[in-house]
Design a protein that fits this description.
It contains eleven helices and eleven strands. With about 280 residues, the protein is an alpha/beta fold.
Length: about 280
């Protein structure tokens, strides 16, 4: 299923407009370059729509949400919809505050998203209209486990059916689903949670993978999720060899993404399909 996903990204070099989290914006840009895409960051209301018009995909990430950028997100999202471009939502911290929750719900009402990627607490908030998170992290009571994967898959499929978007729920176990089919992905390493922004990086990778593989959005999303997890595993092994810590893990993660190809991903992914 991943035979040409990465090679398509590297051949097409999709330009991805990111209205994103300023805590992680540099890593987001570097990961887009590493995976074969091209980043551009423009969040001023006077140019967000115009910038979107020259791009192949759009990321809307509410990690450092503020009133100034909400209008930019809406304008950019509607322009991307009009162009038929990929649009990916990262509802960071939805459920933590009223502003984040209400903005997420408004974005979903006014923009058609290709993919929604979040942790389980953020996805539950979207489904229920309210929820709880631990800051921008998932509530520990919401963890995806081997025991509750069926319930999480049902949640993801229901949200996909409602929104028309592929839904990626990421955590210790990742679920990627549309309304009909789901993938369970078990790649990754727990140390990845010690680096700020791995979720933001993944959202941008999803946008690049999908923009280069528009006819296979579900598979491209699953490939991006598996790729990030597998590269995290490779990075951890390199970190251990160098007797390093979290900073070197971050460096090795970007290195691994830049060197990954379709063959390596197929050999390293831990994925199963559940219809």
């Amino acid at each position: 299923m991943f035979e040409h996903i990465i090679s398509s990204v590297k051949e097409k070099t999709p330009l991805i407009h990111c209205i994103t989290n300023y805590v992680t914006v540099n890593d987001v840009a570097n990961v887009l370059l590493a995976c074969g895409g091209s980043p551009i960051m423009a969040d001023d209301v006077q140019e967000a729509e115009e910038m979107t018009s020259i791009c192949n995909g759009l990321v809307i990430n509410i990690g450092t949400l503020n009133a100034r950028t909400i209008s930019s997100m809406l304008l950019a999202g509607k322009k991307a919809n009009a162009l038929g471009n990929i649009v990916v939502l990262d509802p960071v911290g939805a459920g933590a505050t009223k502003l984040r929750t209400q903005t997420t719900l408004r974005l979903l009402e006014e923009i058609k998203f290709s993919v929604i990627r979040g942790n389980i607490s953020e996805i539950k908030t979207i489904c229920q209209g309210s929820g709880t998170t631990k800051g921008v992290d998932a509530d520990s009571n919401d963890a995806v486990t081997e025991e509750n994967t069926e319930q999480v898959i049902s949640l993801a499929k229901a949200l996909s059916s409602k929104t028309g978007a592929v839904v990626a729920i990421t955590g210790a176990i990742d679920i990627v689903a549309d309304s009909q089919k789901a993938y369970i992905i078990r790649n990754g390493h727990s140390m990845m949670s010690k680096i700020t922004g791995t979720g933001c990086m993944l959202t941008a990778m999803i946008a690049a993978y999908c923009a280069a593989n528009k006819c296979s959005v579900l598979q491209a999303t699953a490939a991006a999720v598996a790729a990030m997890g597998y590269c995290g595993e490779l990075a951890y092994e390199q970190m251990k060899k160098a007797n390093g810590g979290t900073s070197s893990l971050r460096m090795h993660l970007i290195d691994a993404i830049s060197q990954l190809d379709d063959t390596a991903l197929i050999g390293g992914c831990k994925i199963e399909c559940e219809k």
